[in-house]
Design goal:
The chain is an alpha/beta fold. About 35% of the residues lie in helices and about 20% in strands. The chain has helices at about 5-15, 20-25, 60-85, 100-110, 155-160, and strands at about 40-45, 50, 55-60, 90-95, 120-125, 135-140, 165-170. The two termini are about 20 Å apart. About 35% of the residues are buried.
């Protein structure tokens, strides 16, 4: 992952022992979507959390914001694919959240998005369901507007942030 992303986990969990590889510190690791999604960002979304049928939480405003980011990146991915004229690895976007109901809402919206699979892939998972995976871009949807008990365990926040190769963002 980019040094901007690894800095906090490196200090918090690894006592500064992590060393960023030359591949991620070079300009080659810059991506076409960095104008839209910088390497790390926090977005304040003033939505309202509501309970789903199973009691799990979701936040419709955060779903809207996440899909807006995905749509912007998709347009850039399609343009980059056209400019590449051939060899183009699809951009993989992961949207992760602590809540099953939010994952459900995000998945439904992503499925309706009809993204060009040769330009971009979108996956929606819970934080616990995303361990061991990574994507080019991670969008973390916290859902809660007050008190995020799920993230009292710093290791979960570490998983949420460190799944991104080149960009990570969270609702702050």
């Amino acid at each position: 992952m980019r040094p901007e992303i690894s800095a906090w986990p490196n200090e918090t969990f690894y006592e500064g022992r992590l060393i960023d590889g030359e591949n991620v510190t070079s300009s080659v690791y810059d991506r076409f979507f960095h104008d839209t999604v910088p390497p790390i960002s926090f977005v304040d979304v003033p939505g309202t959390e509501t309970k789903g049928v199973d009691g799990s939480l979701h936040n419709g405003m955060e779903v809207d914001v996440a899909m807006g980011i995905v749509n912007a990146v998709c347009k850039q991915a399609q343009a980059a694919k056209r400019a590449a004229g051939g060899a183009f690895a699809p951009t993989k976007v992961g949207i992760i959240t602590p809540y099953v109901e939010q994952r459900h809402e995000l998945t439904q919206r992503a499925e309706r998005g009809r993204f060009d699979p040769t330009a971009m892939e979108v996956v929606c998972r819970t934080v616990d369901g995303f361990q061991g995976q990574e994507c080019d871009i991670i969008i973390f949807s916290a859902v809660r507007t007050q008190g995020m008990g799920f993230l009292k365990d710093d290791r979960r926040l570490n998983v949420a942030i460190t799944r991104a190769k080149v960009c990570t963002g969270t609702r702050g």
